[in-house]
């Protein structure tokens, strides 16, 4: 049996069409095609309130999470504690492409550290299975462990040393859009010209910087590195509670607020993997601006994977533009919540097919009785063939993969649904039939199984 599967990637600027087709062939061609609607691959039905709020900022009950499946690899620099052995849960997320860890130590520091809880939880909120917002994005992780010994205490000097090492690594390993997540800060009001200059250098190098606002229930502008959230490309993140208001904790703690805070994200009883045993299904929780900044770093990684040419300022602008802002004016209590959008949301006729999908295939986004024709998959003379329609007013024969509205599309291929590459094949448009052009795309079969997906990417946000 030869199996074919067809999907369209889902992302903030991508489109998902969940179709499955199975072709069977004997020595002489005989074929059965089936197009079966299925649920999005990037869905966690019981994701907890925090991830649910990232999808629907206005819903106090949503606990499901649909994440975008993106394709461009990105890099996460995580300055934190160490991370517990990650084999069990990195295997559960094939998009965690690599992991490196470096110790950052001052003179006289021990060479090892047993402090791993915080870093493990933060990483799980970014790429962990069932708890990570960027679980559908290929991420390379570099962890800088700045907490020596056995206590969760470090110094500004070690943080500065770690940022310097990030800059060196980024220069030595170019090519991957990068996010630096600093989910820790000083609890003393302070300023540091050297730290500020290092953060400026990171932004200038093209690294998007995400910092936590701090948990002193005061003005973030008085604490470092939160104070530098006023800079373009430095995203200072406050914590929101289940009520969408700034989080208030026990003992006088609570999210810092004020003009330095750019965005908010869930920071109350946020579900993470259990740092003592980080594996799928084994959970713990975290409070404060640390989990909020980790979730925001995940959203920034998704944006960079979708738009790898974005500058740090453009990443910040995109996250701000898509944030959920409460309708009621709340003055100093206002929160703009980070959102992770699973894909184009507009569905004018509410028929289950997004407007972008219907426009690409030449369907009618205003008529619920008219849906895109199924994509057909077949095996013909040793080739896997996709047959589908493209809107005649979008298709450009001179450059067929660039549509008239600036969108682009391509076919990608895999033999295991994990590793994907651009498919090299033959594109053959047919004669225009009304508002549509029939198209076939054929690729040679290289093994007993082949999976094909079409990716449609609208133009980047200007």
From TrEMBL:
Domain of life: Bacteria
Active site per the UniProt annotation: 80, 118, 290
Record keywords: Hydrolase, Protease, Serine protease, Signal
One Pfam family hit: Peptidase_S8
SUPFAM superfamilies per UniProt: Subtilisin-like
The keyword Hydrolase belongs to this UniProt entry's keyword annotation: yes
Domain Peptidase S8/S53, first and last residues per copy: 78-331
Keyword Hydrolase: yes
UniProt signal peptide: 1-27
Family to which the UniProt record says this protein belongs: Belongs to the peptidase S8 family.
Designated name of the protein: S8 family serine peptidase
Species annotation: Luteolibacter flavescens
Upper taxonomic lineage: Bacteria, Pseudomonadati, Verrucomicrobiota, Verrucomicrobiia, Verrucomicrobiales
